[in-house]
Write a structure and sequence with these properties.
Glutaredoxin, Immunoglobulin-like, 18 strands, 3 domains, alpha+beta, 5-stranded antiparallel sheet
């Protein structure tokens, strides 16, 4: 295709030279207008209405080809933000052209509107491509022009929106920004702050992040590492947990660097949920779990042990292992985005400052790790010393590691298979605890009773999985014939389920059809981008999106849930098209299906705060 366009360009150039010569013979020595004299282009950005405006002014007898228009919006790093595929162009005049055949052309004046999916939060460059001719005289070669635009400021927004944004996010300073639960508030607050205040904000934000469901899965992993020590102590727990937290900081810091260099188009969260990354991480947790069962001992390679052979050398190996586990945990165990993290990514992508990006995300991860260090230090002092109880605790954390591996795999395998794997894990652990042994007395009897419960429950889960079940709380529900037939008669088709007023859609095409339907009905829209593997998505749904007061405020809106649980090209296309940095993400659209500027919700947000956000950011712009 590229060579074809090169040959066509050569033909047009030769044709232009020939027609120029003929024109000079016809018109004497009067020079023909240049392409810029014949075709004047004015471009403007209408941020209030989320569109780019193009105005072509043509002199007499000059026309533009409709099919030769091309538009691309990029950030300053070259990342494509929008290619405006499928835009509707105004009607032109039909013409039979000597080069292109039957075409549509424009004379005199052409005004185009390029709709934006969202107002860009970074400086941008609009590339415009077009080609025109002078009637029966000359064809100009293809023309390409670029126009730079600064990211919109509150002064460029509508007065109502600007005032609401100012009062909602910029007026309260550092503490109000932390309490805002709004990624845009973080981004706007940081625009005029020093690097010291920005780093401080993210450190405190990391402390708050540590108490969200995103970080909870890291606690048993860290505890398992400490439990793997022969003689755990408070000092040893502190050292190991510090190494683990520094490991967590590595991918966060790299994320800050990469986003600063490549922009928000680099969707790290989606890349880390690819099947290859998840399977690799699951295997690592299985390997670590088997070491907890005493099948082997994890240690440094022989050549490194020789170099480090000195008192305490074996501890250095475990520190490296703790750091590696921290890095893996940060990559895949916590697959959700919070307002603070989203604000960091938006700000870093807009600034393009690699140092600020790395320092901000490093501070965030360290703040997030402080409670983990406290837990690790306390756990090291509370765990028993080497002996029978210590072996039991190590096996328990080995089971926890296997559970984490199954939880990771649940994002890419069938729910029924997941139920069966959990059942197998519970049943085997129950047998290992002594479910089939004699009762004994005292604590031994209690231990056997717990082992029997685990083994029986695991067996029931396996039976439920064999019957096609998927719910660990009701593994045998599929065996109830009446419930099954009732469910078959009343359940909607997969991918279009209704959850109260919410309609679930799967796939980019289904979402576009839903938005088109709402646009025809003249209704605003809220789209909830979620995935089953996103813990914060479920918290947001249970606490906010199904709240009666929130739903009452959303009366008149069409509510869509976009399921991007499955990792595939369509899911990635959705996240790239709508510029989704991470999950959960709520995006508001007006009655024309244009995104409401500066109204996105990234991460968790409580019902009261959501209603305030709705009234301050969304309603004034509808």
């Amino acid at each position: 295709m590229h060579n074809t366009w090169q040959r066509l360009g050569l033909v047009l150039t030769l044709l232009m030279a020939w027609t120029t010569s003929m024109a000079q013979d016809l018109f004497g020595e009067q020079p023909l207008p240049t392409v810029d004299e014949a075709i004047q282009l004015i471009v403007d950005a209408d941020w209030d209405n989320q569109q780019m405006l193009l105005d072509f002014e043509l002199i007499d007898d000059v026309y533009l080809y409709q099919h030769r228009f091309g538009f691309t919006l990029k950030d300053l790093n070259g990342n494509v933000l929008d290619s405006f595929d499928g835009i509707t162009l105004p009607e032109g005049k039909p013409k039979t052209d000597e080069i292109f055949g039957d075409v549509i052309v424009y004379f005199h004046n052409v005004r185009l509107k390029l709709p934006l999916q969202s107002v860009p939060l970074v400086d941008t460059v609009l590339e415009v491509r077009y080609q025109g001719c002078i009637e029966d005289t000359l064809c100009y070669p293809p023309t390409r022009k670029t126009f730079e635009f600064s990211s919109p400021t509150p002064a460029k927004k509508s007065p109502a929106a600007a005032s609401s944004i100012s009062s909602d996010s910029n007026g309260g300073g550092f503490l109000d920004t932390l309490q805002s639960e709004d990624a845009n508030a973080f981004n706007q607050w940081m625009e005029n702050q020093s690097i010291g205040l920005i780093v401080g904000l993210f450190f405190v934000g990391g402390l708050l992040l540590a108490f969200t469901p995103c970080v909870f899965p890291m606690i048993p992993i860290l505890s398992g590492i400490i439990a793997g020590e022969d003689n755990p102590s408070a000092s040893r727990g502190f050292v190991l947990s510090s190494a683990y937290v520094l490991g967590v900081a590595v991918p966060y810091t790299l994320a800050g660097l990469l986003v600063a260099l490549f922009g928000a188009g680099l969707n790290l969260q989606f890349l880390l949920q690819q099947p290859a990354a998840i399977m690799t991480s699951a295997v690592i947790f299985v390997v670590l779990a088997l070491s907890m069962f005493g099948l082997y001992e994890l240690q440094l390679p022989h050549f490194l042990r020789d170099k480090l052979h000195q008192p305490g050398a074996e501890k250095r190996g475990s520190l490296i292992g703790a750091a590696i586990m921290g890095a893996i945990s940060a990559l895949v165990v916590s697959p959700c985005v919070t307002p603070i993290l989203a604000g960091a990514l938006i700000y870093v992508a807009a600034s393009g400052d690699a140092f600020t990006g790395a320092a901000s995300l490093f501070a965030l991860s360290i703040g997030m790790g402080i409670p983990l260090i406290i837990v690790g230090t306390g756990g090291g002092s509370l765990l028993p010393r080497a002996g029978m109880w210590m072996e039991e605790i190590k096996r328990f954390f080995g089971v926890v590691m296997l559970g984490v591996a199954i939880w990771l795999l649940s994002r890419i395998i069938n729910e029924t298979v997941t139920l069966g794997l959990y059942g197998l894990l519970f049943a085997v652990y129950g047998v290992q605890l002594g479910a089939l042994e004699s009762a004994g007395e005292g604590l031994a009897r209690l231990k056997r009773a717990l082992a029997l419960v685990l083994a029986l429950y695991g067996s029931v889960m396996i039976i439920g999985a064999l019957g096609g079940g998927s719910d660990p709380l009701q593994p045998l529900a599929r065996f109830n014939a009446q419930a099954a037939s009732s469910s078959a008669a009343t359940s909607p088709q997969p991918g279009n389920e209704d959850h109260g007023p919410w309609r679930t859609v799967v796939g980019k095409q289904s979402l576009e059809q839903a938005l088109a339907s709402s646009r025809r009905a003249g209704k605003p829209v809220l789209v909830d981008f979620f995935a089953e593997w996103c813990v914060a998505c479920k918290v947001l749904e249970e606490e906010t999106l199904t709240n009666a007061a929130v739903l009452a405020e959303m009366t008149g809106f069409d509510l869509y849930r976009v399921d991007i649980t499955e990792i595939n090209d369509d899911s990635q296309a959705i996240m790239e098209h709508y510029n989704i940095l991470g999950l959960p993400a709520l995006v508001f659209f007006d009655t024309d299906s244009s995104e409401v500027p500066n109204a996105r919700v990234l991460g968790e947000m409580g019902p009261d705060r959501f209603i305030q956000h709705l009234n301050a950011r969304v309603m004034p712009q509808l």
